[in-house]
Amino acid sequence: MKIENYVRDIQGFPKEGILFKDITPLLNDPDARKKCLSILVESLKGQKIDKVVGAESRGFFFGMLLAQELNAGFVPVRKPKKLPYDTISASYELEYGTDTLEMHKDAIQKGDRVLIHDDVLATGGTAKAVCDLVTELGGEIVQCNFLMELSFLNGREKLKDNPIFAAITY
Ligand code: PRP
Ligand code: MG
Fold it and tell me: Which sequence spans correspond to the domains of the chain?
């Protein structure tokens, strides 16, 4: 089975000129999901993970599956004003303007070994902001992993020395 076959191209979403990679067929098939999860887990080569940090919202799907499989905690990074307790925040640049992500300030302990997960690595702004949040709390980033990397957008460059893995590369 090829997990690539469970990612659907949608031309012109969310706006004209964009080819959207739709993962809902992958989410909707338990065997494809299992295969994708095992590819992500195997990339870690048995390294111990204390916390999986997932970025709202599409990073929550496999982020939680990874946390369960790795017997790790799960930490949601959310869009502003969604988290109820004290937060830290990090901003990142969009095509026009900036956006912000937040995490609970007690979600990670100093020295925690952290896996960061999101569905797509595009320009890298989102993942970089998540890395900044984890680092601010003293977490050690073991890997940033993604279902897909849009390599032509060079998002890797923003993530510098952090190990990066993508199950599918376009
Ligand atoms: C999308 C995608 C990644 C991010 C990748 O999320 O799910 O999180 O963009 O882009 P980047 O590498 O250029 O930052 P989006 O902000 O659209 O929100 P969603 O996950 O809630 O759909
Ligand atoms: Mg997202």
Answer: 46-169
